[in-house]
Amino acid sequence: MATRTENVNLLERSKTKPPKLYKVILFNDDFTTMEFVIEVLKTYFSMTQERATQVMLQVHNEGSAVCGVFPKDIAETKVTLVSEFAKRHGHPLRCSMEEN
User: Fold this and answer.
1) pTM check: above 0.85
2) Torsion sign (Cα): 51, 58, 70, 88
3) Do residues 89 and 80 make contact, with C-beta atoms less than 8 angstroms apart?
4) H or E element at residue 25
5) Distance from CA of residue 98 to its chain's centroid?
6) DSSP-based three-state secondary structure for 11
7) What is the pLDDT of residues 50-86, one digit of tens each?
8) Neighbours of 41 (CB within 10 A)
9) Helices 34-45 and 72-88, interaxial angle, to 10°?
């Protein structure tokens, strides 16, 4: 039978590390409308109109902005959804992810 000390050691070793997080980034271009970027931010990143406008202006003025930080699978899904949505609507909006 295991002693209490042995049980505690087993529990300590079995702890998992939190998942790595990834930033989802939108990039400015000369063709995608500001209104479309705001729609993307509200739809895919659950931003309010005010927050989406602030982030859109950062993309416009600084060339890019972080839209959110997520575990890898969620970040990949958001990048794919945003890219497909932009393409379907004829916009060259670029979205990518990088490790946080």
Assistant:
1) no
2) positive
3) no
4) strand 21-27
5) 9
6) helix
7) 999 999 999 999 999 999 999 999 999 999 999 999 9
8) 25
9) 140
